[in-house]
Specification:
alpha/beta; Rossmann fold; 3 domains; five-stranded parallel beta sheet; five-stranded mixed β-barrel; 12 helices
Length: 331
């Protein structure tokens, strides 16, 4: 038995005993006092169970509804007792009881009948894409650098993640391919971190873009429709989206722009990890800490070693940059 149920049993016993004791003291019969005590105690526990399953917002709505119904019922009762027929003292209490019960019932019944509508309205307002919102695609979630950008304060406003992106991410996480499955799970971890960091600034958008079957098409259509920016690491998606007038923030491009600039003649240290493609030049290949590939002529014999090299050119490509260098001391 859970602690919650144990607590309820203890509260029930205490309430039952107190109410029965008070009932007997006010000269109720023993059986009537027990019946009243049982009814009130059980009703309180039942009400507590009902409230336990409700959100704070729902409880606040119901409470406001009951208070509003009681106020209206009291006002109606006050108007009714102005008529001579209902002015007798013995009828006034019953008039107020009937009017309050009726109005509270009507108010609560109406709210219950519109409960789903109210909840959907709240979800819609939470998932609404407003100005300065940025839509995050699957590749950006899997990449994970967006979390660092949020932590450092480089992304302001709201971030929106469409439900169809979450579905795609879940499908990747459930893939039979171990590499895809690992990427999907990483994306889920990044999503959890964003929820912790952004809280109310992370919006889950339920709109599915009917008529669009591809996730990329849905992302572009959603961004166009709302005027939001799109965050991705997908180069092809960026190009297609820009052709359709969508402003795209490519995390890879940002990383490239922030890389330390290198010029011809700069001296750098690099660890050679493998041979290059052009074996006639005895090329060796290494990587800078930011992931930039460095191709060094004459360095194939230095695999596994850290050496000093001199930059002679930098090639900028659509996907990044490649640095070409020579061994220090060679022309």
């Amino acid at each position: 038995m859970s602690w919650l149920n144990i607590r309820r049993i203890i509260v029930f016993i205490v309430l039952f005993g107190l109410i029965a004791f008070v009932g007997i003291r006010v000269h109720l019969s023993y059986y009537l006092a027990v019946a009243v005590a049982f009814f009130i105690s059980y009703s309180i526990i039942a009400l507590e169970k009902l409230l336990y399953r409700r959100t704070l917002r729902e409880v606040a709505i119901y409470l406001a509804t009951i208070i509003s119904g009681a106020i209206l019922g009291s006002f109606i009762g006050f108007l009714i007792i102005q008529f001579p027929l209902f002015r007798r003292p013995e009828t006034r209490g019953w008039i107020f009881l009937i009017t309050n019960t009726a109005t509270i019932y009507l108010f609560v019944a109406y709210i219950l009948s519109r409960k789903d509508e109210i909840i959907k309205s709240k979800e819609k307002s939470k998932g609404e894409i407003r100005k300065y919102t940025k839509i995050v695609d699957t590749s950006a979630l899997i990449d994970g650098r967006i979390v660092d950008m949020v932590e450092l304060g480089f992304l302001e406003g709201n971030l929106a993640i469409p439900a169809f992106v979450l579905k795609e991410l879940q499908n990747i996480a459930d893939s039979k391919d171990p590499d895809k499955r690992e990427k999907g799970r990483r994306g889920m971890e990044m999503l959890d971190k964003l929820k912790e960091l952004l809280k109310d600034r992370l919006l889950i958008v339920r709109e599915d873009m009917p008529g669009r079957h591809d996730v990329d098409e849905k992302l572009i259509e959603l961004a166009r429709k709302t005027g939001a920016k799109l965050i991705t690491t997908d180069y092809n998606l960026k190009k297609v989206a820009e052709h359709q007038g969508v402003f795209v923030l490519n995390v890879n491009e940002l990383t490239e722009r922030l890389k330390l600039p290198l010029n011809s003649g700069d001296l750098i240290k690099i660890k050679i990890v493998r041979e290059g493609k052009e074996r006639d030049k005895k090329q060796g290949v290494g990587y800078l800490v930011d992931g930039t590939m460095v191709v060094v002529d004459g360095a194939s014999s230095y695999i596994g070693q850290e050496i000093e090299v001199v930059v002679h050119s930098v090639l900028q490509t659509e996907t990044g940059r490649i640095v070409f260098a020579r061994l220090k001391g060679e022309m």
